[in-house]
Amino acid sequence: MIRINNISVPLDFDFSQLKAFCVKKFGIAPSKLKRAELAKKSVDARRKNDVHFIISLLVEADNEAQLVKKIRSAEFYQPQKYQLPERRIFSQRPVVVGFGPAGMFAALVLSECGANPVVLERGGDVDSRCRAVEIFQSGGRLDTECNVQFGEGGAGTFSDGKLTTGIKDIRISYVMEKLVQFGAPEEILYMAKPHIGTDLLRNVVKNLREYIKSLGAEVLFNSRFCGFEAEKGRITAVEYENGGEKQLLKTDSVILACGHSARDVFEQLYSRGVELSRKNFSVGVRIEHLRRDIDRAMYGSFAGHSALKAADYKLAVHLENGRTLYTFCMCPGGYVVAAASEENRLAVNGMSCFARDGENSNSALLVGINTDDFPGSHPLAGMYFQRELEEKAFIAGGSDYSAPVTTVGSFLRGEPAEIPVKVNPTYRPGVRAASPEEYLPDFVCQSLKMGIAEMGRRISGFDSPEAALTGIESRSSSPVRINRGEDLQSVSLKGLYPCGEGAGYAGGIVSAAVDGIKCGERIITDERDSYENYLHI
After folding, report:
1. Phi, psi angle pair for 475, to nearest 5°
2. Which of 84, 166, 286, 536 sits 20 to 30 Å CA-CA off 102?
3. Per DSSP, what are the bridge partners of residue 433?
4. What does the pLDDT look like over 29-81, one tens digit per residue?
C-alpha cells in the first residue's frame, strides 16, 4: 500500500469517484488499481479566492514501487494497529472512578482483557444527565452531582466532541475506531479536525457503556467516590456513596479518572496524604460572533458553500505584558453553556452539535495562570483561586446563575457593560450586563484587551464591537496534578492510578482516552497480580 499526500481538489470534488480520480490524475491503469480510499481531508483557506480541500489517499496497486518513484508525494505505507494486552485472570476486580473519556477507555480496555471492572460515576446516565442539565438551563435547580461536569461521558459530552490532539500515539487509532464502532460518524477517521458533536456523542457513550457491560463490567451511576482504605502503602478498598448509603468495595487497583471539577476528591486525597502538586491552568471568557461573520472572515466568497461546514479558527498572541492570550475549544455554530457544578459559583463552557448550524460561533479566550499568580504554597491553592473567581462571576451575574456578559466594544473602550444586541448571547438560563473586570484579575483583563485587538488583525471582525463576551471560563484544565511515577501509580499510594485531565495528565477527549488506555494496560500487565502468582500467595 502507498499513501499519496498533499493532493489539492476543489470543493465540489466527487469523493465517491476516488478510483477514477487516481486513474486520471496519476495514470494508474484501471486493471492494476485495487483500492483507493480517503486517508485525510482538510480545508485549505489560506487564500480566500481559492478555498479548496487538501487530501491524502491510501492506494493499493500492482505497480506500487513504480508509483512511489513517479509520484513525488507518494510513500510506502504500512498501517499500524493497536494491539490489546493479553487477557488474564484477575484476583480482584479493578475499579474505575469516573466515566468520562479517560474512565470510559480505561474500562473498555480492562473489559476487553477480561478484568470485569467496576465503574463508579458520581453523576447519572446520559439520559438523566440531559434532563438535569435542561432543568438547570431552564432556570431550575443546579444538581451538584449531575450536571455539565459530572455524569456519563464526562464534561466532553457537553462540548463539541472535538477529537483533535497534539499527541502522537498508536492508541489514537484504537480510540477513533472504537468511537466509530459505537456510533460516531466515520469521517472522524480521516478529517484533519475531527469532531462528533454533543448530539451524537450522547449515543456513542451509551453504546460504549452497554458494550463493556456485555463483557462483564459493572457501571454504577449516582455513586460518588468518597474514600479509600489502604494497608502498607497500598490501596485495599474504595468507599462510595449511593442513595445516601456508603458502600465498601474491595480492590487493589483503582484508576482515578474523576475529572478536573471533582474538587472534593482533591481535598480528600490531600487530607489522606496523597501527594499533589500545583500546576498551571488558564482563565478567561467566551467570545461569540455571528457564525456567518466568522465563515465570511475565514472563507471569503466561498462562505456558505455546501461542502464547507461552519468555519473554525485557532489563535494565540504573545503580548507586551509577557502573557499569552489564546483561543480554546472553539465551537463553530455552537452555544455557550452553563458549566457550574458547585452552588453559588458560576462557570461557562462551549458546545455544538454535529451539524454546527447554530446562529453563533464561540470560543474560549484564555490567559495562562502560573503557579506564582495566586498566593500560598498549598497544593490546592490554584483550585481555591478558581473558586474565588467563580464566586465573583456568580455575583456579577446577579447571584442566580445568570452569566455576566458585555460587548467587546464596551469592554475595550472601558465603558459600562451592555447586553449585546446583534450577537444574541446563547448562554442559558440568562445573562446580565457585567464587565470581566468585575470577576477577573487585572492582568487577565489587560491581556484580553490587548489580545482581542491583535486577534482582530489576524481575523477580520474578530474584535467587532458587537461581539459578546460571557464569563467565566475557568474549567479548561485542572489546577492540580496527582503525582504519579513511571508505572503510572501514585507516588504515595500503590494501586492508585491517577488518570486523565483531572489528574493533570491530559488535555482533551483523545489525550484523556489514551491516558485511560495506558492506565488500563498497566493494571493488565502488572505481574504482581497474575493468576499464577496469586495461587502461591
Report:
1. -115, 30
2. 286
3. 405
4. 999 999 999 999 999 999 999 999 999 999 999 989 999 999 999 999 998 89
DSSP-derived 3-state class of residue 302: helix
Task: List the grid coordinates of 455.
Answer: 486577534
pTM, entire model:
0.95
Instruction: Enter the C-alpha cell of residue 56.
Output: 491524502
Q: How many Å apart are CA 515 and CA 499, to the nearest integer? A: 6
By the 8 A CB rule, do 391 and 379 touch?
no
Cross-strand bridge partners of residue 195: 162
Look up residue 442 and give its three cell numbers: 487585572
Cα separation, 537 vs 535, in Å, equals 6
Distances (CA, A) of 473 to 290, 347, 367, 444, 529: 20, 6, 10, 12, 43
Q: What one-character-per-residue DSSP string does 470-534 give?
A: EEEE--SS-SEEE-B-TTSSBSSSBTEEE-TTTTTS--SHHHHHHHHHHHHHHHHT-GGG-HHHH
Lowest mean pLDDT among 409-418, 491-500, 518-527: 518-527
Q: What is the pLDDT of residues 80-138, one digit of tens each?
A: 899 999 988 888 999 999 999 999 999 999 999 999 999 999 999 999 999 999 999 99
% of the chain beyond a pLDDT of 70: 98
Q: Decide if 87 contacts 115 (C-beta within 8 A).
A: no
Count other C-beta atoms under 10 Å from residue 324's C-beta: 15
Helix axes 509-524, 171-181, angle to 10 degrees: 110
Cell of 143: 444538581
The alpha carbons of the chain give a radius of gyration, in whole angstroms, of 25
Q: Which three cell numbers stand for residue 177?
A: 475506531
Cis before residue 194, ω within 30 degrees of 0?
no
Question: 6-34 in b/e burial notation, b at 16+ Cβ within 10 A?
Answer: ebeeeeebeeeebbebbbeebebeeeebe
Burial of 37 (0-12, 13-18, 19+ CB in 10 A): middle
> Residues 487, 493, 496, CA angle at the centre, nearest 5°?
60
- Separation of alpha carbons 239 and 249, rounded Å: 6
Query: Per DSSP, what are the bridge partners of residue 281?
Result: 369
Rounded Cα distance between 5 and 42, Å, is 12
Half-sphere exposure at residue 430, Cβ-oriented, CA atoms within 13 angstroms: 12
DSSP 330: E
290 - beta bridge partners? 360
Instruction: Give the C-alpha separation, 352 to 361, whole Å.
Output: 9
Going from the C-alpha of 428 to that of each of 252, 409, 458, 472, the distances in angstroms are 43, 22, 30, 14
21 in Cβ contact with 36 (< 8 Å): yes
511's grid cell: 489525550
In angstroms, the CA 226 to CA 204 distance is 28
DSSP class of 428: S
pLDDT of res. 533: 39
The Cα–Cα gap between 455 and 294 comes to 13
